[in-house]
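Human: If only I could read backbone structure tokens as easily as an amino acid sequence. Take your time, and here it is.
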Amino acid sequence: MARTVLPPDLASMDQTLSAHAGFICQRKFYDDVHFPRGFSRCGDFTTKEAGILENHGWAMRELAEGKRLPVTVEETQFVEVLSGKRVAETLFELIWLKYCRLCNRKPFYSVSDSPRSQGLNSSNILYDPDDSHYRGLEED
């Protein structure tokens, strides 16, 4: 899978954003499963990216799932990017790919091998005194 790289000058993409006629939807987009605190408070998206996801996320999601047909050139290019026919260039494409990448990240689990954290102590650790690895550990 190709890695998306944000262009160095996102300010120049403001013109593209304001000129977007597509990605119109009537309701706000939220993902309480992956971002329960919201896009703007999770720390993964800028304020601008969070706003675009909230205001246009349903349109992007429906296009990605094939539930909506593209009606503009931008939406057609968006679908082509998701199908792998084009490289992501627009702000909408980059933000959606970032959103998908963050949704698919593996959860972080802390693992501790300390016997104390597992509720174990020397009196309830079982071992076989006949095992050669434990020679000399037997209590007399």
Q: What stands out?
A: The radius of gyration is 25 Å. Residues 8-19 have pLDDT under 50 and may be disordered. Residues 47-65 form the longest helix (19 residues).
